[in-house]
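Researcher: For the record, we're logging two predictions in this thread. I'll number them. Prediction 1 follows.
Model: Prediction 1, sequence and structure:
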Amino acid sequence: MTAPVGPLASQLTDHGLAIARTADIDLGLGYPQVAQPPWLGELLAAGVDPDLAYSVPSKLSATAQAALDGELLEATCRCLGIDEGHAVNGFVTFSGSVALDRVLVSQLGDGGSVVTTTPSVDMVSAMISEHAGVEAIYVAASGPGFDLDVEALSASLRPDTRCIVVSSPDNPSGNVVTAVQMSALVALALEHDVTLVLDQCFALVNPQGNDIPVLADFAAPGLKWILLWDTGKTFGLNHEKLGLVFCSPNVRESVRERLNVLQFDVSRRQKLLFLAILNAAHSNRWFDHLSALVATNLELVRQACLDLPLVASCPDAGSLLLLDVTPAGLTASVFADILLAEKGVGVISAGDFFHPLAPSGALPPGHDHFVRIALAREPDVVGTAMDKVAELCHELGRRPVVPALG
């Protein structure tokens, strides 16, 4: 796969799109690709009224717009299980990517650094690359399970650090920031007067029924905090998505200003549609259904790997799984390329999620050991994919020359 170029280059995005275009079975993109329940299909069919395409002031007053936003944000709070009072410091955006970009800009001002983790999604580095004088500092996760290392995060803070950015559940590891870790992050942010940003877009996908602490529940007086959630990782609708932002009162104005710089108003139709979707998803227990589907596929992949030279991880939550392919004698990037070319199965090399460590600039050990598999699929699709993975592993074992692990 060719590496992308440009200020907003994202290997993860480019590789995911390449897989979507060419794979027979797409286990690359993290968005759900599952059968729509009848209630969702009915809402989508009903939610196309052209009169709602734009929030024309003459048709809807600013007061009415604010009321609609409030209802949508309160519905999101109910789904996330947080106090609906947080809706007053919330914002509706076009997507999670827009939300993350504007949040970062709002906290960075004219410069400074962002402390985040590796492995993690590459959008933080892609977005801040547009802004001169801003630097991303990556802190390696701890151990083979890629656990969050709060002490290492603390040691990486600099006088110019403006915010800490963490994901929970994490992408790609599926690790969850525990309540103890969340309290430690809050204390760290308060001590150094930095903004704590948590991307929790997978928080409603919980295949193992684990506790997934949500940042809003840990808000402390004086803490600068921002919580991000988007609809894409939960519903996977190709052309329908929203990003939601919740924050503390002391950063609300800076976030609002930056959102207003970039974003025109999200359409009234989109807001009404997702207000209905979130309420219906809650009442129809969609989040439980999606979590159960992911749990089935997680066990399916684990069982398949018992007879293969592959090791499946055990994610805490989310809909992603890391597969260690090094026992098969291959780097992850080579394994992913061969699997796509010969078997038509697309997975993401986890190398897309690893970032250079300062000050050496070297990638962390193990950056090319894993592929990421998306589990929010129908079980028969995942089953067929794992059959093809098994075929490839057996064929590789019979080949006289196998690309060696570098």
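Researcher: Logged. Prediction 2.
Model: Prediction 2, sequence and structure:
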Amino acid sequence: MLYSLEVNGDVPDAELWVIGDGLRQSDKNKIQACASRQINFYDLDDSTVQHIDGLKTTSNWSRVVYARLFLPALLPSDRGNLLYLDADTMIKGSLRPLQDMDMSSAVAAALGGPSRHNRQLGRPETAFYLNSGVVLLNVGEWQKQNLTRRAVELLRGGTFGFPDQDVLNLLAEGQTIALEPKWNHQHAKSIPSDVRIIHFTHAKPNTTYCIHPEKATFLEYRSKTPWANARLRTRMDRRLNRIAHSVKRKWDRLNKALRS
């Protein structure tokens, strides 16, 4: 994602931030090698972890997914808007229109529409439900409304199917600008020529079983990074990852019970 952003993003003056949880210096060095400009790393610290410790995680969603709800509160309000990009995205064209977008008093801009996920939020299915994998956030308005504090209250007070995404939908309800599909293209059957951001929401392009038409482009970009020779992951890797995550969760709960 970072390499494709550098090659195609057309936003050389934008600051880059990477959120990490336990990244080693060697990891950061590899990530930095994907970009020509300096990357700012934000490591989850104790003050953030205390708010998200114990919240829902899976083998696909680490606790870092919640960090997108904290980052807008940590950045200077005069730095403009924050474009959050999931790691499973690939930039195909200029992001300049997003960087220059006038958010006015809106909190977020994202792709969305009617969704069955609204039901568990107590909203009509026809309500606008955004995908949080590509979302433009108004840092100034976020801080003005103290939305990080509200996010923590929601996370601690409810049960969500897609925790960070569901909460972001509640925070930005009625304050969201709808983006065109080209800014968050999730369908693998056809890729329109105007697509700016590919979002690999299903099988990831670093796996043996991904058949996405943009997989070859992904691998071409990856060949220019420190992960050029990394093997493609298999379905067995995915199963083992799920088992390891389950064991870790049980171990963490046991340790927490013993400490209390």
